[in-house]
Amino acid sequence: MSTLSAAPPRKQGGAGQPETATAATPSIRTVLRRQLALIAHTRGRAMFTFVLMGGLAILLMPETLFDAQSTTLAAGFILGGVWALGVWSGEAPSERVYHRMLPVGRRRHDLLRVLAGLGWLLAMLAVVYTVGGTRLMTSWHPEHVAQAGGVWQIVPGRYWINLLTAPLTTYLAVSAFAVAVERPGLWMVLTLGASLGLLRLAEFLELGPLRAVLHFLLAGPHGLGEALVGTVGYVPIIGGQTPPDRWLYAALAWLALAALGVILSSRVYRDVR
Amino acid sequence: MSASTLAPPALAGVLPQRLEADAPAVATAGLSKRYGARTALEDVDLTVPDGAVYLLAGANGAGKTSLLRILQELARPTAGSARVLGIDPAADGAAVRAQTGYVPERHDVPYGTLRVGRLVTHHAAHYASWDAAYAAHLMARLEIEPEPRFAELSKGQARRVQLLLALAHRPRLLLLDEPTDGLDPLVRDMVLELLAEHLADHPATVLVSTHLVGEVDRLADHVGVLTRGHLLTQISRAELHRLLRRYHFEAPEDGTAADAGALHVLHRTNGGAERAWTVWGAEAEVVAHLTAAGCRVRQVEPLRLEEAAVALLRAGRGRP
After folding, report:
1. Mean pLDDT throughout B221-246?
2. Residues 68-97, chain A: which have Cβ within 8 Å of B?
């Protein structure tokens, strides 16, 4: 008469079995390696395109490397920002089911993803700058290079470092949004727009203190603009002047600020849907 | 013939809401979850005994998925607390997830371009207890190919990959959210058979959420019924089998029926003198009551798990 059949017999005491899972979680090194591999496997095409476009840009406009402030600034924004969005593509905070179901602390996992993305960004920039940039610089100014004994002699390391700070700062700043908010690109644009809008408004209404603060942050001697552009345009080989040291402080400060932004944003908790 | 479902006011006090377990695999206390104005869970005290296969039944939107997400730290409760394998997920979600195999409600993985084999490799690296040989066995049994990219998989194929990822590290706890959703009947049957084999070989506690109760009929030994975010009841299958039955009887010739108010009737079907009532209570007491009211009890039958769950869900809704 009964159709309520008994469950099949099976062993009891799941928690006490030695062969079952342990609470051991993967090491930071393991997670970082996996994040690096994951990005390579899932964003490989984007990385290839990134390197290709970067190389082509330098091929067509070699002066963008050291000479054109606005172009470099734009390139830094685009490269760093787009890459930060790409690293989290399809994984808005509320969509990170797979990422979050792995046995890694949520904050640690997010930060290691950002770090892995940063590693690949550095690698891609290194490829573009060293392979593309130095070769083209050599061909563009062969007499200078020959005279100095190599491209590294005429373009000191600090100038190369500055070429990294713009995309890295932008990458970290956009990552701070990508880690915590659903539409990071929109939030980034809104934040920038609001800052510039406020600056214009402060100038228009002659709001001295506000204008001073915003000007200091955006266009002051240690402002964001200085940090991103830095030594660009000052490279001696192209006829520039020796840059003031302040760019280095500005670059480091803004880089640290962007990194702090990432750390703080990783504290934001969002439920997945 | 007419049918109706009754929700006696006293039913909430009659249905057991607490399970006793010395060291439960999962225990929640006063767990609540709200999304804005919407309440997904309200004051849920869930107890999943260690080693149990606990079926969490409920209609769509009853709060099952929210509950499982909280247990994995994918969502945080608005109030109350949870302990999974003795650990608070909000405090150390990673340790919970290291010992848990989770099949989420959603089928998709954001890495559509990733080949299945690479996803398995990626997943495996995160678990100290990953059993590569068992993973290979599961891939063969589930007919999973490593070459296709995840975006190329059908819903059912993606589900099979998720099951592989959940089982191959032999977790102490399995949290399965609609595990057979998207599977065709043949594969569904194979997956359930595989689950039974897995549990026989690698004992684990299972909390399986589904609105298709019949599918896990052969696995479950405990049942919880979630309705509109409230845990209506939780009970061992043996107790459910004993206490919830359908009574076929003939009403007295004068047309009067037994006093339903004195019984905990969850559902009644009336067809002339023939009646079939689903009643909560000890069989002897119910039969005695019906007999005393002049009814002739012809048959008493236990309910299938699915029927029992549906009866309880209807009662929980209080829908006539």
Report:
1. 93
2. 89-91, 95-97
Mean pLDDT of B198-210: 93
Q: Tell me how crowded residue A185 is: count the other CB atoms within 10 A of its CB.
A: 15
Token pair of B60 as six digits? 């769509």
Give the burial string for B204-229 (b: 16+ CB within 10 Å, else e). Answer: bbbbbbbbebebbbbbbbbbbbbbbb
Question: Which one has a higher pLDDT value, A20 or A228?
Answer: A228
pTM of the model: 0.85
Inter-chain Cβ pairs, chain A and chain B, closer than 8 A: 174
CA dist B279 and A91 (Å) reads: 49
The arithmetic mean of pLDDT across residues B170-188, rounded, is 90
The answer to whether A103 contacts chain B (CB < 8 Å) is yes
Of the residues B55, B66, B97, B235, the best mutation for testing chain A's interface (the one with the most A CB atoms within 10 Å of its CB) is B97
Find which of A12, A101, A102, A107 to mutate to test the B interface (most B CBs within 10 Å of its CB).
A101
Chain B CB contacts of A19 under 8 Å are: 129, 170, 202
Residue type, A261: G
* CA-wise closest residue to B315 among B284, B285, B275, B279: B279
> Cβ A100–B73 below 8 Å, yes or no?
yes
User: What are the distances in angstroms from CA A67 to CA A63, A72, A166, A254?
Assistant: 5, 8, 14, 22
CA separation for the pair B286, B240 (Å, rounded): 15
CA–CA min distance A258, chain B (Å): 26
How many angstroms separate the CA atoms of A65 and A244, rounded? 19
> What is the number of other CB atoms lying within 10 angstroms of the CB of residue A126?
14
* Cross-chain residue pair A269–B76, CB shorter than 8 Å: yes
Distance, CA of A100 to CA of B100 (rounded, Å): 13
Residue A270, min C-alpha distance to chain B (Å): 7
ipTM of the complex as predicted: 0.88
Per-residue pLDDT of B249-269, as tens digits, reads 988 876 555 566 678 888 888
- Rounded mean pLDDT, B78-97: 96
Considering only residues A22 and B255, tell me which one the structure prediction assigns the higher pLDDT: A22
